[in-house]
Design a protein that fits this description.
Largest sheet: 7 strands, parallel
Distance between the termini: 22 Å
Number of domains: 2
Helix content: 40-55%
Order of helices and strands: EHEHEHEHEHHEHEHEHEHEHEHEEHHH
Strand order of the largest sheet: 3-2-1-4-5-6-7
Shape: globular
CATH class of the largest domain: Alpha Beta
Radius of gyration: 21 Å
CATH superfamily of the largest domain: Glycogen Phosphorylase B
Number of helices: 15
Oligomer: single chain
Length: about 375
């Protein structure tokens, strides 16, 4: 007799890909379908990405207004009821709050809260922090994507330590693209054969600090001409952190339009990583950045700001460099060191790939989530 599959609903803010959304996508894609029946719900933006359509799972858009929206809570509760959801895994604080009614009041589902950065917990107001503590006391588990995030869940939200799981983000190792395919993509992007390419994959939010990268790149062009910068990501109208207007203004004001390419949302991240020579992440704050780990898995040397989350991934002098936030001079020097030394680039890229494979594999991440889901299911 076959075992009945566990119905799991992942709840997230939006479908457009950021780090959290990519993790949810990978979990829904990789969970053992003999054990689990995954589905996904989200609040902002009604466009369904092709990647999610191709998963062949149930997808639920729950429209939410900017203010407190009780109807969104009710609608999410209806989804949980009608589909007999047994485990709700909410990613980020707001989805966790909105999942509480449907999972714990209207139904008897398990509720698991996954948080992706310490700073997001720190910015929760006192009022909502009290609400979060109330909800978490009645929840079944919480996941931190790093030790620091797990500690913040325990200390700032007073959650029981025995119910906190630390599960490091995982990524698929990015395979090398065939030379001919890489050349076709370079041509499509308007890159010449002798261009060096620097890249970042991050949605346009102020916390990602794109302006810092652009300032360093502007200075770099004084000493290194045949270099291009790829900005992969987008801003969102509903996001108060949206920095796209500022980024476009800076590029135009500094005359960088010929050297900076804004690519918007892309589904071909592995192929783009294989085009890049150097990957950068300039965030002011981070959790455990999936884009950075993906770049490492593609064998790229990496440069990042010396902040929590990034400093856990980059080993200075081994697989890349750390620079102080907004230290343009040091950032430019790090870029030049790599651009002028192909052997260093190659060696650091190899170290990046080894670190990603040994510590941040997607298989390990999915296995730990599956084990947690089954433990919680069996404890009910």
């Amino acid at each position: 007799m076959s075992r009945r599959r566990v119905n799991i609903l992942f709840v997230m803010l939006q479908m457009e890909m950021g780090g959290a959304e990519r993790l949810v996508y990978n979990l829904a894609r990789k969970l053992d379908r003999n054990l689990f029946n995954p589905s996904v719900a989200w609040f902002f933006g009604d466009r369904i990405l092709k990647e999610y359509k191709d998963l062949d799972i149930a997808l639920y858009h729950i429209p939410k207004k900017k203010r407190i929206d009780l109807s969104a809570m009710q609608n999410l509760g209806d989804v949980i009821s009608k589909n007999k959801i047994e485990i709700v895994n909410a990613h980020h604080f707001m989805p966790m709050v909105y999942s509480f009614y449907g999972s714990k009041i209207k139904n008897r589902s398990s509720l698991i809260y996954t948080e992706h950065s310490e700073w997001e917990i720190e910015q929760i107001s006192w009022k909502w922090r009290m609400m979060g503590r109330y909800i978490l006391k009645r929840s079944d588990a919480a996941v931190g994507v790093s030790v620091q995030v797990s500690r913040a869940i325990q200390e700032k939200l007073n959650f029981e330590q025995s119910k906190i799981f630390t599960i490091l983000n995982g990524v698929n190792l990015v395979s090398s693209t065939k030379g001919s395919d890489r050349m076709v993509l370079r041509k499509e992007l308007g890159l010449s054969t002798d261009d060096k390419v620097i890249g970042i994959v991050a949605n346009f939010r102020r916390v990602k600090n794109h302006i810092f990268l652009l300032k360093a790149f502007s200075e770099l062009l004084r000493d290194f001409n045949n270099v291009k910068l790829l900005l992969v990501g987008q801003g969102f109208d509903f996001d108060p952190e949206n920095s796209e207007t500022e980024i476009r203004h800076f590029i135009n004001e500094k005359g960088l339009t010929e050297n900076v390419k804004m690519l918007g949302y892309r589904s071909d991240i592995p192929e783009l990583l294989n085009v890049m020579d150097i990957f950068c992440l300039t965030s002011l704050k981070e959790g455990l950045p999936i884009s950075l780990i993906e770049a490492m898995s593609a064998g790229r040397p990496v440069i990042g700001t010396d902040v929590e989350g990034i400093r856990e991934v980059i080993i200075p002098g081994k697989n890349g460099f750390l620079v102080s936030t907004n230290d343009v001079v040091s950032f430019k020097k790090s870029l030049l060191a790599l651009l002028n030394n192909e052997e260093m680039c190659h060696e650091m890229g190899n170290e990046s790939r080894l670190l990603a494979a040994n510590t941040y594999s997607l298989e390990r991440c999915v296995r730990q989530y599956q084990d947690m889901f089954m433990t919680i299911k069996n404890d009910k």
